[in-house]
Specification:
This protein is an alpha+beta fold. The strands form 2 sheets. The chain has a 4-stranded antiparallel beta sheet, covered by helices on one side. A two-stranded antiparallel ribbon has the order 4-5. A hairpin with a 6-residue loop joins strand 2 and strand 3. It has helices spanning 14-21, 52-62; strands at residues 2-6, 29-34, 41-48, 66-67, 70-71, 73-76. Helix content is 14%, strand content 20%. It is built from 2 helices and 6 strands, in the order βαββαβββ.
Length: 133
């Protein structure tokens, strides 16, 4: 079973994670997730155990327990979905989202406040001539 372990202190290492889970049974693998650029821990990781009963015992015992000054989150890992993840030039799937590529940081600049080409006096200056209504 794959186990998600979150809210870890950033100083937590893979060997710390191994030590934490080894009392529950044999560990197949341990992976602490780190930032690709800085190499620093992102505060979560995964532990794989072949024995589902031992894995469930670890989840039941460790979830919510205080480790390194934080209450860690431990549960069965969910498979990564295809649309998970964001990124990209326009901020990925971060809300906003207007039809011009909105979201944070992307899209076209349509500027202006929506008042057409009016000047401060209220006269419409389209094409350089005043129109009558």
């Amino acid at each position: 079973m794959d186990i998600y372990v979150g809210n870890l202190a950033f100083q937590f290492s893979e060997s710390d994670l191994t030590e934490l889970f080894q009392e529950f049974g044999e560990i197949k693998s341990v992976k602490l997730i780190s930032d690709k650029v800085t190499g620093k821990s992102k505060g979560f990781g995964f532990v794989t155990m072949d024995d589902d009963t031992a894995a469930q015992a670890a989840i039941d015992k460790l979830n919510g327990s205080p480790i390194g000054g934080r209450n860690i989150v431990v549960n069965q890992a969910r498979p990564k979905t295809e649309n998970a993840g964001g990124g990209g030039y326009s901020g990925g799937n971060r809300g906003g989202g207007n039809r011009y590529g909105g979201g944070s940081g992307g899209g076209r600049n349509h500027g202006g406040g929506g008042y057409g080409n009016r000047d401060r006096g209220g006269n419409d200056q389209r094409g350089g001539r005043e129109e009558q209504y």
